[in-house]
Amino acid sequence: RVSVVLLTSDLRLHDHPPLCAALETADAVVPLFVMDRAVEAAGFAVPNRRAFLADCLADLDAALRQRGGRLVMRSGDLVEEVCRTVAQANADEVHMSAGYSLFAARREDRLRRALEAVGRRLFVHDTVTVAVPPGTVTPASSDHFAVFTPYYRRWAQHPLRPLAAAPRRIRVPNHVGGEPLPARSDVTGVSPGLPAGGETEGRKRVATYWRRGLDAYEDTRDDLAADSTSRLSCHLHFGTLSPVELLHRARRRGGPGADAFVRQLAWRDFHHQVLAARPEAAHADYRTRNDHWRTEHTARADIEAWRQGRTGYPVIDAAMRQLRYEGWMPNRARLLTASFLTKTLYVDWRIGAAHFLHWLVDGDVADNQLNWQWVAGTGTDTRPNRVLNPVAQAKRYDPDGGYVRRWVPELAGLAAPALHEPWKLPAPDRAALDYPDPVIALPDGLDRFRRARDRDH
Ligand code: FAD
What we know:
CATH architecture of the largest domain: Orthogonal Bundle
Region (Disordered): 177-202
Strand content: 5-15%
Protein name: Deoxyribodipyrimidine photolyase
Strand order of the largest sheet: 3-2-1-4-5
Radius of gyration: 23 Å
Structural class: alpha/beta
Bound molecules: flavin-adenine dinucleotide
Helix content: 40-55%
Low-confidence stretches: none
Cofactor: FAD
CATH class of the largest domain: Mainly Alpha
Distance between the termini: 64 Å
Domain Photolyase/cryptochrome alpha/beta: 1-130
Binding site for FAD: 217, 229-233, 261, 362-364
Largest sheet: 5 strands, parallel
Number of strands: 5
């Protein structure tokens, strides 16, 4: 008996329910990854994520080989490639993880029908890429929660499934062939500081973070210079780590750091249940409609300054440069730069979200689009009119200026708090800096959102 295990956003061997289920009933399995043409056509396969994915596939193949198996990779139309593999392997069933986007739901539907047409069954497993799947906890009056806090209360009470053991041996039928795996070195346009991908790296990172970071997480996570968050988002996005496993481990650890970390993991599930219920929220305003944003046509220079990290606001520029260099930013930096673009420059959140999705190694439709909507005030924030002051925030979250100095070398000679407001320096000092003037003055920028909104509505 043979089963195909279709791997998608679950590129690991530990805690992998579809793989365990397949191994329970089959003597041989085909671990299959399909480089889906549709993902590439949608523009989602950007260099940073392609490079990280190449690492993940190589690591998974090595882990499978250690257990007597190997990874089979194919490219093309996912449904056609799975059906071809099933025929070649003469497999009885296909196992995969559930995806919760509209794209994933449609793909799964097509696959199920194609397999049924040839008398094969598709088994879709929940709780692989999220801990509490969309639709599991719902309020009395709706199909999903629109506000985080009541969601979190229910989410936290939901029992976690037990962990699935990593397989020791895997037999892959010899005659099932695949294509060579992609190599990270073949991808161009990758951020120089992009982290390495793969389950092995992910597990190392967890071990280090559990030793050195987790207990202080609550106190330090917003400290920009300390760089003290887990940096596990890329591993959660590609599924090289299991959210269920992280939650079991964090709950076992306990204490304020682990509790705060658990709460952040709930935000992931929260956004996924919003997007699953309202797939149009990937592009359209979720709660409060705003048709009056400035756009590429009306704010081109401001948008370009923001993208390049040359707005004249040091903390914003530091964050935008980190994004390009590492393909990642801490949450506080994402909040500040997104608020600056939407609330201070009054630019459409979709423009910022697209830029983030181009660079972020953890770029995820649910987490990115809905966090952007949260900041822009069109989404699930219960205080949609809040505007973050980039100077006050910089003084609070980068009090010594270490973060700005790391990413904006033009200001490396300045001390805090002066480096957060270089336009206030005496004229000769200011003139000596090769650093732009602010694209917009404060408090003008802080009022802009409210004035524009009052005018437009
Ligand atoms: P930690 O602080 O260590 O948190 C642990 C984990 O909790 C993270 O790895 C992540 O999986 C989850 N988490 C934390 N905060 C959030 C949040 N607000 N929403 C959802 N999950 C969260 N996260 C993504 O994974 N992909 C994105 O595309 C993405 N885009 C974002 C865009 C904006 C404008 C904002 C404000 C936030 C975005 N986030 C996104 C959420 C968050 O910023 C990142 O998950 C976090 O910064 C990743 O770093 P970390 O792993 O060190 O997080």
